[in-house]
Amino acid sequence: MWRTEDVLKKLREDQGELSLRAYAEVVGCKASYLNDVYHNRREPSTKLLDRIGVERTKTITYTYTPIKWRK
Question: Can you give the CATH number for the domain in which 42 is found?
Fold first, then answer.
């Protein structure tokens, strides 16, 4: 399971020596959008994740905390 940080690392590795604008064109998005993803201002889209071979899944976690009742 990957975290958002792992996806960002993969994007940066795949970008390599390409400029942000050139890499954005390769993955099919705008440079401004990719820049926002890199700076955690936007979530990576499903389309972008598909282009780099990552699938988004969601996990729901419930945590039980006992309630202290007053008498």
Answer: 1.10.260
DSSP state of 57: -
Q: How many domains does the chain have?
A: 1
In a domain, 68, yes or no: no
Which residues lie closer than 8 Å to 48 by C-beta, 6 or more apart? 27, 28, 29, 34, 37
Cβ distance 38 to 11 under 8 Å? Answer: yes
The pTM score is 0.73
The parent domain of residue 19 ranges over 4-51
Could you tell me the two tokens for 52? 């780099």
What tens digit of pLDDT does each residue of 6-42 get?
999 999 999 999 999 999 999 999 999 999 999 999 9
Question: Greater confidence, 56 or 9?
Answer: 9
